Give the backbone structure.
Amino acid sequence: MEPYDENEISAGDVIIRRINPRQHVVWDENRSCSRISSKAFSPSSGPNDGMSVDIEQLMLSDGVDPRQYVTTPVFTGSVAFSAGSARALGLLVGYDPLPTNPYYGEVWGGSRPNRLSQRQKKGLAEASRWYVELDGVDIL
Amino acid sequence: MQRPEYLPDFSDPPLDEVVLGVQFTPVPKYSSVGSGEVWGLFKDAFPIVEEHPLLPPRFETFGGANPLPDLPFLLGRQPVGSRLWFLSRDLNHLLQFQPDRFISNWRKTANLQPYPRFEAIADSFEKNLLVLAEHFKAVFGYQIEINQAEISYVNLIPVGEFAEEERWFTVCNSGSVDVETLNTNFVQVVRDRDRKPYARFVTEIQSVFTLPSRKKALKMSLLFKGKPAASDVPSAIAFLRDGRKRIVKHFCGITTVEAHEFWGRRA
Amino acid sequence: MRSAGQASTAFQRDIRGYEPILDPISSITPPEAWVRVEVPRSKWIADLRERFDEITSLARGWDGYDGRPVTFATAQFAAHVIERLCIAGVPSPYLVPGSDGTVQIEWRRNQYDIEIDVLAPTKLWRFVETNEPETRRNWSFKWTSPH
């Protein structure tokens, strides 16, 4: 999918990013807590591949329970941020429906679609709240 | 490609093998099913095929608090597959292919073909590498990304006794010691104009017994390996050419005048 | 007088711990030459051996989307970097896989956040942030050199 910004996704729409409890969580000795690694806010491979997300509004429109949907088939936690907060960081948010996930979307870097800067990753983490919480894990 | 005129030349150097190779980011989505197509690219000149174990990835890294030589340890789930040898009918020439490496060997075999000279070997390697790169692009949409290159000259010097090493090498001097076996190696870090390390030059001299005759010989291997300036084919070839110059100059520096005369030094 | 064909290095075989420097790309390496499985010298690599096995064996879709395991070549290069950086007495880093086969090496201790994002062999991004009041700053560097 070519990077683009979807007009139908409004600023307040909830964008969900799944977090694997085993792979994405690290111990922060500085703050004596478990937290999500910045690597969790990274895109997939390919020059046009962005960061994989789920679009809550699409699930709600289809009558699908988002919290149940994003915890299958692999159980993960998830965080959520608004589309507006991603765009404020210079990111693009668009649909990319798949046969296996019709609610799938992507968040692309502005200048480099498949790379988010440190500032953008940190900004997304700061803008996020737990959607499916992982006990004892801080987002930032 | 023309031989640089200033480079020392020998009519009969003790060369036993010359190897040129590149390592690149593995071709995405390549599987061993595609190996037949790869062989098809070179089959006319290399009709004989052998299978060998995969070579692990190797990188020249520098710096850090633990400045020890790179050791070939392997971690993680290793890829499945094999390294294919494509051999010429006379067995003098060999291409080695695996999903992240392409290597060309010239070796002196029983048929004692004359050494074809570096220029011919390098031209052939470049041509074959470009063919392979074009194949990757056409079939997999993959632009080859070369991350390491290496060139190696292996020399074999027959001797009556290993103690003769000082007749051939300026870096060995056993004096009156009755040498039973010999093993010397040293590694130099090579830096660019900005003094940043980018390659290593490895010299290894060993006492060996040739097969199958079990005759004594001294094996001198000179290897230049590291990261080319860029990831494309021309940069890799430039790296190999530079390596060749270093090897030839170093070869002259660590071998004796008497040895040069024996090997027919012309320049 | 020339010798053709293969040579054996009987001397090497008698010496424990001898490390053949040359990559076995030479075709005249005897086929019966043994393969040495080296024990890494750093504690960090010893600590991370199982973790490397894990992240290179992740099932497709491990991230809930289409995540791939860390590629073998990237893992090897990351291991080389870790081996080089190892400092005695400092705990080993965390390894965090990316959805795209990459891996991030990170420490969060002693008031420093250090991340080395290994994107491919010889391609790294390095990020360092310190929370020490008198030196509060961050550095972000892209490495494409052999370092």
Notes: The helical segments of chain C are 10-14, 43-55, 72-85. The longest helix of chain C spans residues 72-85. The first strand of chain C starts at residue 7 and ends at 8.
